[in-house]
Amino acid sequence: MKSDRLLSILLLLQTRGRVPAHELAARLEVSVRTIYRDVEALSASGVPVYAERGRHGGIELLAGFRTDVTGLTADESRALFILAAQGAHAALGLDAALGSALRKVMAALPAPHRPAAEATSRRILVDATRWRGGPQQAVDLEGLQDAVFSDRRLRLRYRHSGQRDPRTYTVDPYGLVAKAGVWYLVADRHGGPRLFRADRVRAVRLLEEAARRRPGVELADVWEVLRRQVEERAEDVIGLTVRVRRACLDRFRRLVAAQLTELPDDDGESDWVTARLSYPTLPAVRQLLPFSDEVEILDPPEARAELLLAARRVTDLYRDEAREGR
Prior knowledge:
The chain has 326 residues and is of the alpha+beta class. 40% of the residues lie in helices and 23% in strands.
């Protein structure tokens, strides 16, 4: 587009000073005649640009002329330097590129906006990873990146949670999504949206066929559908009512924060505080086992039975080891 080309010429001249017309033509892949017409258009719009012909000639802006070609407001400038999920850039091998890009943006910002942008980058940090996330499985994001940018179908070897052996799938990729520190491959399988955790992908092979994406559907559209599916499944959960010893309330809040649905204010008087939790499956309530007698399940009865069964198995395990002298 002509407007894009005019802006590119303005940026090049503002950055480099005098530039020969033939060099601009080569950079922008147009003829020298087109470059001179563009220069006339810039001049007519009020940009002080002129051309000097001859061996040492070229196209140049009037000395001292600068323009805020970014068009950024003060708030927009600050927003660019608050980067959520910085770990995502590292995982993609783009940390160095990010730093370089921000330096270039800083240089291009209007002078009055630079101090606020610099202060924002030093005073605000967003870390999207969870506390106590534990060791992360190695993820071949480089291989997955190459795969999704190839616009070709993929053959995956993928291990589902709770299964020992991986399974093989042929999918049509839309892209990669980072959610709370976890990477996902978003793809269609048999024309329907599917979600694959990147750390469970054991092998990726590109096929010769082009990816068969649904017409007019983008990555954000597929992710929205999958996100809703996950959240709707999360609504079909097991609700627990528990009582917690006030002495361990802070630790309880910290360790089961993701499962807490209700925690009344601690009045500081009673020894116990009632709380409500939710779990996706019954065995998941075993998360409460390490609290020993500091947390008691009041309801439902099947959750009490599940925790009792887990406690008995632990007791039996250590009793048998003691008898064998281990």
